Amino acid sequence: MLDEIRESVFRANLDLVKHGLVVHSWGNVSGRDPETGYIVIKPSGISYEKLRADDMVVVDLSGKIIEGKLNPSTDTPTHLLLYRTWPGIGGIVHTHSTCATAWAQAGRNIPALGTTHADTFYGEIPCTRKLKAAEVKSDYEVNTGRVIIERLSNMDPLHMPSVLVYGHGPFSWGTTPEQAVYNAVTLEEVARMALYTILLGKDKPVEKYLLDKHFQRKHGKKAYYGQSKN
Ligand SMILES: [Zn+2]
Fold it and tell me: Mean pLDDT across the chain, nearest whole number?
């Protein structure tokens, strides 16, 4: 089972490059093994061209290395806090993708301007507060996780599968690493569309009944989008 998750986390990391979400080594994907509960994450600072499935690092929820010769991503403590807080998530992606990062740098939530947004995100995509100097000075990565949890405190993380960390960039998640990548790609597209829409003079959210319809038909109890699973 660990082999399976190691392979899917490796593929998901390469998918970030394929979808144009990362340059250099700026980004990481992790995944949770449903059997052991261990987290598999990209190693720190290894370029995507050189990355192999065997390089993935396995840690437990406290960050102790279980398998792997390399150091895990420096963002590991952020990922681990999210996994500990939200048992329903199984994959996390962090990138500095251009449009989502532009919103994070502006410190602005992304309003729900249309149905592309509403298909994945139930409401405006939140931006965290600024980290205080002391929060940056020590335990920076854990504190990054803390402001994310704080910002999402009244939301179901699977109804709002992304956040913008103020002055930094986006984190996305899902039930699997693949779904987290899907949500990160969607976030970048939605962030780009929102920039254009605001440029054209509209910054008010789309009507609530349209937002509800689009989110519910994909994710609600009576979801009917796509092919029947039976
Ligand atoms: Zn970052």
Answer: 95
